[in-house]
Amino acid sequence: MAQHFKSSTSSWRKLLFLSAILVIAIFLSYTVSRNIFITSIIFGGILLVAVTLFWPWMLTLVVFFLLYSNTVAIAIQYHHVPYIVGGLLIGLLLIPLVKILVIDREKVIINQTLLLMLIFISIQAVGAIFASRPGIAIDKVITFLLEGLVLYFLVLNTVRTPRMLRYSIWAVVVAGLLMGAISFYQEVTHSYDNNYWGYAQWGTSFGTGQSNLLGDVVAPRLEGPIGDDNRYAQIMVVIAPIALFLAIGEQDIKRKVLPLVATLLIIVGTLLTYSRGGLIALVFVIILIVFLRFIKLRYLAFLLVVALLVPIAVPNFAVRLTRLQNITISGLLSNSSTSGITSADSSVQGRANEMISSALMFADYPLFGVGPGNYAVHYQEYALKAGFNVKLANRQPHTLYGGIAAENGIFGIICFLLILYLTLRDLYKGRLALLGSNFTLASIMTGLFLGVIAYMVTGIFLHANFIRFFWLIMGLAGAAVNIYQSGLTADNKATL
Fold first, then answer.
1. Where are the domains of the chain?
2. Which of 385, 386, 361, 390 is nearest to 463 (CA)?
3. Alpha carbon distance 101, 111 (integer Å)
4. 27-31, 97-101, 160-164, 376-380, range with the lowest pLDDT
5. 213, exposed or middle or buried, with CB in 10 Å at 0-12, 13-18, 19+?
6. 384/419 Cα distance (integer angstroms)
7. Where are the beta strands (DSSP E) in 43-187?
8. pLDDT at 340 over 90
9. Is 347 exposed, middle or buried (0-12, 13-18, 19+ CB in 10 A)?
10. How distant, in Å, are the alpha carbons of 432, 452, 463 from that of 422?
C-alpha cells in the first residue's frame, strides 16, 4: 500500500511539474511569436520531450495519433516545418522499443506477416532490377521499407499488452474524432475557404443538379487533412468499425460515449467526401456486422439510426450515385451504350480503363510485373488497348489488387493476399476464443478485423498509396493477435 501511494505521489508530482512547464512555454512562445500554430509546435515539442522522459510508453500513442491525423504532413506542407521531421516521426518509436528490448529485456517479436513482408520487399527489389524506370521502382521499394516494413515491425514490438493495445486504439480513434469533427464543422458553417490549419482541405466538387441566381449549385468534396477526398474516405471508413467496437468493448458506460460520438463523426466525415467507394465499403461493413451477428440489438439500432440520418446529413450523395443506377452486369458484358460502362460518368470510365490496363499489363508481365511504381510508365500503351476513355496524363491503376499484380506479378499479389488472409484468420480466431474471457480484447480484435475488411473493399477502387495508414492498422492487428497467442489476455498482467 505504501509503495503504491509513493508511486502515485511521484506520478502526480511529475504531472504538476510538466503542467507548469507547459503553461510557461505557452505563455512565452505566444508572447514572442503571436502565432497560434508556432505556439502549438513549441508546445508539442516540449510535451514530446517531457513525455519521453516521464512516460516513454506514451510516446508510442503520440506517434500513432500524429500518424493517423496526418499532422506532420500538414506541418510540412502548410507550416514550413522541415521535411526531415516527417522522416523522424516513425523513428521516435525506437525510443520505447529500446526501453522494451534493452531495459525490460523483452524478446523481439517476428510473426508470419513480418516474414511475408520481407518476401514481398524482396519481390519488389527483383522487379525493380528489370523495371523500365528503376529509379521510380527504387523509390517505391524505399517507401514500402519505411512506411510498411519498418512501421509494422515497430508497432508490433511496442504494443505488447492488452492495456497498451487499448490505449493505441484510443489514440487512432481520437485522431478520427478530430478529423470528423473538423469536417462536420466546416460543412455546417460552409467555411470552405478556411482549411483550419490544414485539417480541412477540399479541392474538387460536383454538380448537385440544382441552380440559383448565381448559376449551378456545386457541392465540395471534403478532403480532411489528407488532401485527397477518396483517400480521406478510405482512412476514415477503416477506423469507423474500430471506433464502434472500442465503444462496445469498454466496460464503463461513461467510456462508451466518446467512441460512439467518434463513430458518428467518422461516418459523417466519410460521407462528406462523397466517395462512392467509401460508401460501398461502409455499407458492406454494416451488412457484415449484421450477417455475422457481431453486435447486440442496441448497437444495431445505433447503426440503423445513423443509416437513416445519412439522407438528411448528406442530401447530395444521391446525385453522386445517379450515374451508376443504369449500369447492369449484362450491360457491362455486352458493353451496352445504355447500361454498360460507357453510360457512367467520366470518372468511372477512366477508372475502368485503368483497371483493365492493369490486367493487360499483368498478362504481359506475369512473374514480377513491370516493377514497383512503373504502372504509370506503361499506362498509355495499355490504355489504348483497353479502348475507351484514355487519359493523356500518366495514370495510376486505381485498384489495389490490379496495381500490385501489374507492378509485382503473380508472386507479389499472392504474397500480399496471404498477408491479408493470415491477419484476418488470426483476428477472427482470437475474437471467438476471447469472447467469454476478455470481451474488451475480443471487441478490439473484431473492430480491427472489420477495419481491414473495409480497407480491402476500398482497395477495389483505389491503388496502394498513403500506405502508412494501412500498415499502422495492420501493425495494431498483428499486436492484437500476438497478445492473444501469447496468452497475455488479462489486464492485471499488463503494466505500462
1. 110-321+401-493
2. 361
3. 17
4. 27-31
5. exposed
6. 33
7. none
8. no
9. middle
10. 16, 12, 21
Q: In whole angstroms, give the CA distance from residue 38 to residue 338.
A: 56
> Measured over all CA atoms, what is the biggest interatomic distance in the chain, rounded to whole angstroms?
80
Q: Which residues of 402-418 are buried (b: 16+ CB within 10 A; e: fewer)?
A: bbbbbbbbebbbbbbee
Give me 142's grid cell: 524505399
Nearest by Cα to 415 from 159, 117, 41, 26: 117
Q: Which grid coordinates are listed for 72? A: 506532420
Q: What is the mean pLDDT of residues 4-22?
A: 51
Identify the three-state secondary structure at position 176: helix
* Residue 212, H or E segment: strand 201-212
Find all residues with CB under 8 Å of 147, minimum gap 6, and list them. Answer: 90, 467, 468, 471
**Residue whose grid cell is 489486464:** 491
Q: Which residues pair with 215 in a beta bridge?
A: 212
**Percentage with pLDDT > 90 across the chain:** 53
State the pLDDT at residue 135: 93
Instruction: Name the one residue in this structure whose C-alpha cell is 499486436.
Output: 479
- Residue found by looking up cell 522522416 in the block: 87
Partner residues linked to 221 by β-bridges: 204
Classify residue 369 by its DSSP letter: -
Contact 222, 269 (CB under 8 A): yes
Is 211 within 8 Å of 191 (Cβ atoms)? no
Q: b or e along 38-74 (b: 16 or more beta carbons within 10 Å of the residue's beta carbon)?
A: ebbbbbeebbbebbeeebbbbbbbbbbbbbbbbbbbb
| Structure confidence by residue, pLDDT tens digits, 150-192 | 999 999 999 999 999 999 999 999 999 999 999 999 999 999 9
pLDDT at residue 18, rounded to an integer: 54
DSSP-assigned letter for residue 217: E
Grid coordinates standing for 259? 467512441
pLDDT band, very low/low/confident/very high, at 88 (cuts 50, 70, 90) = confident
Please determine, for residue 318, whether its predicted confidence score (pLDDT) is greater than 80.
no
